């Protein structure tokens, strides 16, 4: 394997992970795991997130258990759940066991939703506030979490039902002893976890925001969904998405060059 060819392939995967993923999906899984193994973990994560879940599922058996765990940790729970829907049922528990216990539980919940519904694609690792919290308590929770998420937080009651939302900037303007329930916005647009993706995309909840709360059948909060995640999920349901998706002459040239480099890297190529 030429060092120059390998460096060219690595550069392309680093700079154009989506286009690289499309090309890699055309290769044998054992070859792709070998090539991805030459990248840094965060670079591998970029390519894996762009791959179709059904193809990523084929990569896992070619990895040692330690590497399986490491690569799964590079993905968010929605992506992991999407991948595990494509592995044999007898292997699901094996892969779930590689995750921390809390993530195992959340991932099982996501897998229980059909992949054409929003519940399968929610972000579950979301910081929420309790409706009995004071501003001081809320700020302490933010600091402990080293929070860097969206500026609006959801407020839930003792049954985990969403009762309001509040801006971090609003918290900063209030006195420490005041209850967040006293000034939270009680109008919280939400979607059911069983809403189909196509219906969710055109729902009116997106009129003034790009993120909504997602609830279960009992109206319990299960996570948040961002608008781009719906578009991302719908693309996974398009057959055309497995083919190379090139949007410019430069990307065409990049992809063509990468394909040629892959031919040189793949063992057994004439």
**Structural class, please?**
mainly alpha
Which regions have little confidence, pLDDT < 50, spanning 5+ residues?
239-252
The whole-number mean of residue pLDDT values reads 84
> How far is the first residue's CA from the last residue's CA?
14 Å
Please give the oligomerization state of what you see: single chain
Strand portion: 5-15%
Count, helices: 14
Walkthrough of the structure:
Helix 1 (3-15) packs antiparallel against helix 14, helix 2 (17-24) crosses helix 4 and helix 3 (29-36) packs across helix 5. The longest helix has 17 residues, at 249-265. The chain has helices at residues 3-15, 17-24, 29-36, 41-50, 53-59, 65-72, 77-84, 89-96, 101-112, 135-145, 168-172, 197-201, 227-236, 249-265, and strands spanning 128-130, 152-156, 162-167, 190-192, 211-215, 221-226. Helix content is 48%, strand content 10%. The chain contains 14 helices and 6 strands. With 270 residues, the chain is mainly alpha-helical. The protein has a 3-stranded mixed β-sheet. A hairpin with a 5-residue loop joins strand 5 and strand 6 (221-226).
